[in-house]
Design brief:
By secondary structure, the chain is of the alpha+beta class. The chain is built from 3 helices and 4 strands; from the N terminus they run E-H-E-E-H-H-E.
């Protein structure tokens, strides 16, 4: 399994991050071949957010890169934030059990 991690800094607008990931990012990226999941973490105090997409293969993640590049500016516009970095990782452990949908 492979991941893409987006590091976003936004000026205290975590509710806007929540809205844009529910309305734009997840519906768009989840249709890509090899998509396995999406986790978004946010800290209202610092305005920092992490978006982690999970992919069944490195090729699937790479195949979604073009779409992800078109979505990032929409996130920045909707949140007034800046995407500080985007990094790719191999997932070494993923243990998620009975997670309620947020």
């Amino acid at each position: 399994m492979f991941s893409r991690v987006n590091f976003l800094e936004t000026p205290g607008r975590i509710p806007d991050v929540t809205k844009v990931v529910h309305e734009v990012v997840q519906p768009g990226i989840s249709k890509e071949p090899g998509y396995l999941g999406y986790i978004v973490l946010g800290d209202p105090t610092t305005g920092k957010a992490l978006g982690i997409t999970l992919w069944e293969s490195e090729a699937a993640r790479a195949g979604s890169d073009a779409l992800a590049r078109t979505i990032r500016p929409k996130v920045e516009e909707a949140t007034g934030g800046m995407m500080r970095s985007v990094e790719n990782f191999e997932v070494l452990l993923c243990d998620v059990q009975n997670v309620p949908e947020v």
